[in-house]
Every structure is written in C-alpha cells, then in structure tokens.
Amino acid sequence: MTPSELPQIGSQIKAPLNLKSNGSGSSRMRTTSWLKDDTVAMELAKTKGASIVTSAETLETMLQLPRDSHSRWMFFATTTNIGGGGSNNNNSNKDRGSTITILDIPIAQPMMPRQCLELGIQEGIYHGGDNNNNNNIQSKHVYTLWTLPATTAAMRRQPIRVLVRSTVRMVDKDGVPIVIRPHVEYFPERGVEEVSLYEKSLWILDQMLFQHNVKTRMARVDSQTCKILDLEETSVAHALASAANKASNPMIHWQTLIQIFQSLPSVGLSQYLLCLPGRDTHSTTSSASIHAPLTLSDDSSAAEQRENNNAGVVVNLENSISQAETVVLNQDTLLYCSRDWKWADRERIPYTFPPREKGKTSKG
Fold it and tell me: Cis peptide before 277, with omega less than 30 degrees from 0?
C-alpha cells in the first residue's frame, strides 16, 4: 500500500464522489467480500482452531447496545465443518472437530443522520478527497485471533476463539495502519461535544484488532463546512479514562457483544439470520431473533410454507436491502444526533450555551 499522511487540522474533506466508474468501466467503489468466500480466513480458522469467524464491520455494528432505539442490524450466519484441527488446539478442540460459525459482514440497513454523515466523511478522508486521480482504492486484510473469556466449565474445556478480519485503508511510511474515526460537531462555535460510550468502545476495538500496533485518531469535523477542527489521539486508556461507574463505562458494549458470541455455537442451525430488533412475535425491541432459511417450492405459496414450518415471521431480504439507502428521519433519530456538551469554562453552568456578546444598543 502507498503510505499516507494524517490529514491536517483545518483541511476540508471532499466528498468521495464519482466512485462507480473510473472511465474504463471498472468499479472504484470499495467492496467487501463475503467471509464464507474468503479462503485465507477459512484456512486460518482451520489451523488456529477458531470457533467463530467474523469481520471488523460486524463487530462495529454489534457493539451498538440492543436496548438503544437506533440500534439495528442483520447478519447472515453459517455453521460449517471445515475438517482438521489446528496444531495448537487442545484435545477437547480436536475431539469436537473444526465446526465454525461464520458471522458474515452486515446486511445493509437504514442509517441515522449522524451515522450517515460520519461514514461519508470517513470515506472522504480515506480517499484523500482526490476523486480524479485516485483510481485504485487500496486496501488489505489483517486477521486477528481472540479467545473469549470463559464463564462456564464447558467454555474452559472448549475455549471459544474468534477470528476477525479487518480491512486496512491507510498506512504510514513504516507500514503501521492508520484508523480515523470522524466525530461530527454540529455547533462548533458553541463548544465541543462529549464523545459517546459507543464511540469509545470503537477506540478499544481499533486497538484490539491491530494488537495496539496502529495509529488511531478521532477527527472532530464541522458538519457545515466539513473542515477538520481537531485530531485527537485515541486508545484504550482514553476510552476508560472517565469510566467512574458502570453507566460511564464503554465496556458495557463489549459485555453484550461477548454474550452474543458465547451463545452462537449453541444455536444448532447450519444457516440462519440474526436480526435486531427481533422480528418474531416473542421478541422485544431490545432482543435479537434467529431465523432459519425458508425454501419455497414451486407449488406452495409463502404463506403456506410458513404455516407448514410453524414460522412466526418471514424476513424478506429484498425489501430490507431496498430500504437500506434511506436515512431515517424522525424525532428519535434527530435526538440521537445530539450530544452532551463539554465545556472548558468551569464557571459556566453545565450544558448551557455561553452568553452572547452584547451588541451596541441603538439610540431612540
């Protein structure tokens, strides 16, 4: 990969336009391949004894707390036996074979306004704003193996290992990956916003994906001008610095993620969809649902097939994907755009705007 420099404070981020074609008919849009088709990931899972194979994009999505009203995701999962066992596996891992669960890249979902803007800004940063000369979108994959904490005797006997595929978009002159996460500032003239716990959980993710051998920055960006207001270094220490109690600790996002991963090997289906919020009649808005594939025969309707399989609901993927281009605009999503204020003036009343300067009064 060609080395890149960190963007400069004060520089304006250009929108990543004209990415569908570079003039020769080939696509310039960044694409992500399915994990089930990634031969490198499958071979690593086989040799390293991984229980679950997933992607960094999947983890970013799943770190959203299920109880948050804006959280929504859908994943296609496949459980398969790839045969053989790793040389570093213990005897119990060899006995169980190499059955792995592939939790693939997220299926596209409608986005929140802030989320849509920040993802667009991130693409602009990675593309360098040069839409005319940057014909080759460079990237490479890095694979990381995690071992989940064992909470039961069964997990201690058979540790759950997770193989994560990450995509590197930028590197410095020494080949060290660079990760930049934008944070939109809607009222920069009034002060800076507090960073959400979800954003801090992503700072931890960045360090874990690259084993702390990574340059990570948060770019505060003016929402109106798309200019970079500040670049702040991020790390696990920065994420946990203000975690005085459980309510202010970003690890609550990780606890939910780990619980989901620990339950995946026990699902018992070869293929299924994992959806949040839950789509069946027994799910609440804060719980996920699992859906087995529904195969329609030529002589039966969807309703008849659903009744025969005692299925509570049929998830129409075509409809879900067709709605993914929309940006959800309602009161809840607009409130989600707002953040608490971080004031430098200790004399100011918390979460209030600074006083306006008094103008000259006109004489009557």
Answer: yes
Encode burial over 103-112: b for 16+ CB neighbours within 10 A, e otherwise.
bbbbbebbbb
318-334 residues labelled b (16+ CB within 10 A) or e (exposed): eebeeeeeeebeeeebe
Q: Specify whether the CB–CB gap between 131 and 137 falls below 8 A.
A: no
CB atoms within 10 A of CB 346: 6
- pLDDT score for 26: 38
**Cβ pair 77, 130 in contact under 8 A:** no
What does the block give as tokens for 68? 């948050």
Cβ(254)–Cβ(51) under 8 Å?
A: no
Q: Read off the pTM.
A: 0.82
Q: Between β-strands 341-342 and 192-193, what pairing exists: parallel, antiparallel or unpaired?
A: antiparallel
Pair type for strands 73-81 and 289-291? unpaired
Please, how many CA atoms are within 13 Å of residue 343, restricted to the half-sphere of its CB? 11
pLDDT reported for residue 21:
41
**Segment 351-357 long-range contacts (CB within 8 Å, at least 24 positions apart):** 353/190, 354/190, 354/191
Phi-psi group of 241: left, alpha or beta (phi > 0 → left; psi -120 to 50 → alpha; rest → beta)? alpha
What is the chain's mean pLDDT, rounded? 80
Place of tokens 């994906």: 209
CA angle 238–244–247, rounded 5-degree value: 100
Tens-place pLDDT, residues 277-306: 877 756 565 678 888 876 655 555 555 555
